[in-house]
Amino acid sequence: MLYFRFPFSEDYNFVDENLDKNPVSFHSFDNLEILDFSGEIESISKDEILSAEILSDSLSSKLPLFEEEQQSDYQQKLLKVIDFIKENDLSKLVISRRKLVKYEGSPINLSRTFLNLCKAYPNAFVYFFIKDEKCWLGAFSELLGKFNKKTSEFETMSLAGTIPVHESWTSKEIEEQKPVTDFIKNILNAYSEKVELSETYDHLSGNIKHLRNDFKAQIVREDVEKIISELHPTPAVCGIPKDFCRKAIGKFEKDPRNFYAGYIRVENDDFVQYFVNLRCAEFFQDAALIYVGGGITAESSPEKEWRETELKAEAVLKNIDFS
Ligand SMILES: C=C(O[C@H]1C=CC=C(C(=O)O)[C@@H]1O)C(=O)O
């Protein structure tokens, strides 16, 4: 099953798994796993979601053997990452961890958790799925791409840099977001004569904010999937050079990213949209793993980076319904 809600919409959707169409698919970070949801996109009411009442008790898998990375270990590792960034002259490298949430005997109401996330993040793409013994929920507003089938306009954004809502930007975040903008600009310029780029502005997300630029470009329909495969993973979730940074992530992160920092493709009559899968968590019968990361630069402070991941984890954590 899959429930989802588009950004700025009040309607909830599900996909009935009956037909040959594949309107929604989840792509893992490493692109090796694609989870398809086939059928028609149908609408579903809040009451129907509530009455289905899906609890963590009903999930088939328990959390496999897992050792959570502690603050001191994570910070030690980030010191090594910073050295690596300096040695290789990288502008940034995105490193992530998994925060463990044990239910301690009180099951989670996953349906209510989904609705809480929808309420808390009106500008986000919010989803909840259970399939092939996997269960994930997420809510985030970063667009990897949006293609308008009628006008052939392609939209995307560069989103990076994080600070608490009431703090002021420093050169660290500004320098962290720039490579994302440059990376996207270079790709779009190869596919379009006309690429529009907005000013940089603040993108609010609960207790934190990010730096953001929006792009618009006229493209041809046949290029959409090619552009997406060049864009993913952007330096907002990986780094540049892409393949070098992907390998470095594999070396520094002790657990796989799975669907975290991958993307979700959703197609309807008007658009094909691709949402970056951040602020997400994997749920098991007895515990959940919240996936969080951040862009590390030569200027990073390991302690601040740890705090940033804690703040990002809050985005999901505070909306979990312990029934
Ligand atoms: C990698 C994550 O966030 C990305 C998106 C916005 C800001 C980011 C940052 O400030 O590091 C990251 O690039 C995450 O939330 O796990």
TrEMBL record:
Chorismate-utilising enzyme C-terminal domain: residues covered: 71-312
Database matches in SUPFAM superfamilies: ADC synthase (SSF56322)
Pfam families referenced in this protein's UniProt entry, alphabetically: Chorismate_bind
Record's protein name: Chorismate-utilising enzyme C-terminal domain-containing protein
UniProt organism field: Kaistella carnis
